[in-house]
Design a protein that fits this description.
The complex is a heterodimer of chains A (250) and B (72).
Chain A (H helix, E strand, L loop, with lengths): L2 H4 L8 H4 L5 H10 L1 E5 L5 H11 L3 E5 L24 H12 L4 E5 L8 H5 L4 E4 L4 H13 L4 E7 L2 E7 L24 H19 L8 E6 L4 E6 L17
Parallel strand pairs in A: 1-2, 1-4, 2-3, 4-5
Antiparallel strand pairs in A: 5-6, 6-7, 7-8
Chain B lengths: L1 E5 L10 E4 L6 H8 L8 E4 L2 E2 L11 E5 L6
Parallel strand pairs in B: 1-5
Antiparallel strand pairs in B: 1-2, 3-4, 3-5
Classes of the chains: A alpha/beta (250), B alpha+beta (72).
């Protein structure tokens, strides 16, 4: 008899993850109560959203104001050729609802900026930054720390990528000087690399929702050429203008 | 001895990790040694702490250098 049936749950959808040691029905209940916001429905947002929807997150918001263009199709797998010119949130919603109709999906066709960011993130337990520019990443870093909501960052460049959780309790993007980053335009991107990093973000999000805090103060760097995932310790910076506001907090 | 860890595209044509006995007074000298342009560096860490390229380097420091990675 499936594990979920033994627990009196009719839906077998989550059976294979419920039987993971340390996950269980309690873990599934935590995910089903969780509210997660994904900012960006591109190369990182597509895998992150897909795995969060399959895992059974209770409420999943996703923000993007772009339309699907041809140069997106090498990596943004929720968008098909027939979706060219459509809003990314509409295109993604259409597929995600077919993957798991029990998740509350909240598509937000809006550009996140300094005037609306605080309102948009409020009420969510966790934010995933699946962005393609430094300015919005730094804005999200600041507003999320101010609201005490952890941000799971991901970024790619060619054969390389990173994942990093920014939070008030741990280091943030400003702590490692990320604001000095100057992006290439257009940035090089491979679908298989975006898939790895978006999946890492989903894994970290699920882990954190289940109570795992071990990702704090660690920068994970993926190298597809050498096929390595390096872990680099990052400390809260004494020069971080954000963390300095809360340095006396216990 | 200092340890220098290079990441992502900075590894192309170079090793991942160097353990060097040379004395470097600051990050700029390290970039010169590896012929890395300062505009190709996004994050420069000394012992896990964000650092200016002009900050002093001392024996047994661990340096981590990252190029810009920000696409999505």
């Amino acid at each position: 008899m499936p594990f979920s049936h033994r627990l009196g749950v009719v839906d077998m959808r989550y059976d294979r993850q419920i039987i993971i040691e340390g996950f269980g029905q309690d873990g599934q209940a935590k995910l089903s109560r969780a509210k997660v916001l994904v900012v960006g429905v591109g190369g990182l947002g597509c895998p992150a959203l897909t795995y969060l929807v399959q895992a059974g997150i209770g409420k999943l918001g996703f923000i993007d104001s772009d339309v699907v263009s041809e140069s997106n199709l090498n990596r943004q797998f929720l968008h098909f050729e027939k979706d060219l010119g459509r809003k990314k949130v509409d295109s993604a919603f259409e597929k995600l609802i077919e993957i798991n109709s029990k998740v509350e999906l909240v598509p937000l066709d809006i550009h996140l900026n300094k005037d609306n960011a605080r309102e948009l993130i409020k009420g969510y337990d966790l934010v995933l930054a699946c962005l393609d520019n430094i300015e919005t990443r730094m804005l999200l870093n600041k507003i999320c720390l101010e609201e005490d909501i952890p941000v799971v960052n991901g970024g790619i460049d060619g054969f390389y990528g990173f994942a990093f959780v920014a939070s008030r309790k741990g280091a943030c993007l400003e702590c490692m000087g990320y604001q000095n980053t100057k992006m290439k335009h257009p940035f090089p991107a491979l679908g298989a690399v975006a898939g790895v990093i978006g999946s890492l973000q989903a894994n970290m999000a699920i882990g954190m929702l289940l109570g795992n805090n071990s990702y704090q103060n660690k920068l994970f760097q993926f190298d597809a050429r050498l096929m390595t995932l390096d872990e680099i310790d990052i400390s809260i910076s004494e020069d971080c203008s954000l963390h300095n506001r809360w340095k006396d907090e216990k | 001895m200092i340890e220098i860890r290079l990441f992502a595209s900075l590894r192309e044509g170079r090793e991942k990790v160097y353990k060097l006995e040379e004395a470097f007074s600051n990050g700029e000298e390290i970039l010169d040694y590896f012929q890395i342009k300062s505009e190709d560096v996004a994050i420069f860490l000394i012992n896990g702490m964000h650092s200016n390229l002009k900050n002093p380097i001392k024996d047994e420091d661990v340096i981590a250098i990252f190029p810009p990675i920000g696409g999505g």
